[in-house]
Design a protein that fits this description.
By secondary structure, this protein is mostly beta strands. It is built from no helices and nine strands. It has one domain (about 10-50, about 60-95). It has a seven-stranded antiparallel sheet with strand order 6-3-2-1-7-8-9, with no helix packed on it. A two-stranded antiparallel sheet has the order 4-5. The mean pLDDT is about 90.
């Protein structure tokens, strides 16, 4: 179960954009955890090569950051995520620090 899911409100706690607040747009698995795309982070410009009859273009791509560099927000306060098991189902429980 993931600690941070799509549409959660997070605050960036380290890196160039520390202090920025935004919602989670996408979560991808990686070898060292999960990578997160946040709405408050600027995008990167990737240059796409043109095909035989078309011209090249510039594409905006979201920058992904590691899940350890963000903290989940509940209202304005940072929160922690725990798991609660009821029978065979596992639920995500968010608690304010």
């Amino acid at each position: 179960m993931r600690r941070i899911c799509r549409n959660d409100l997070v605050k960036i706690i380290s890196g160039d954009h520390s202090g920025s607040i935004g919602s989670v747009l996408d979560v991808r698995p990686s070898k060292s955890g999960f990578l997160i795309a946040v709405d408050g982070i600027p995008t990167q410009v990737r240059h796409k090569k043109g095909k035989q009859r078309g011209a090249g273009s510039k594409v905006d791509v979201y920058r992904y950051i590691h899940e350890s560099n963000v903290v989940l927000l509940l209202g304005d306060q940072p929160a922690r995520v725990n798991r609660k098991r009821e029978g065979k189902r596992v639920f995500r429980v968010v608690e304010v620090c």
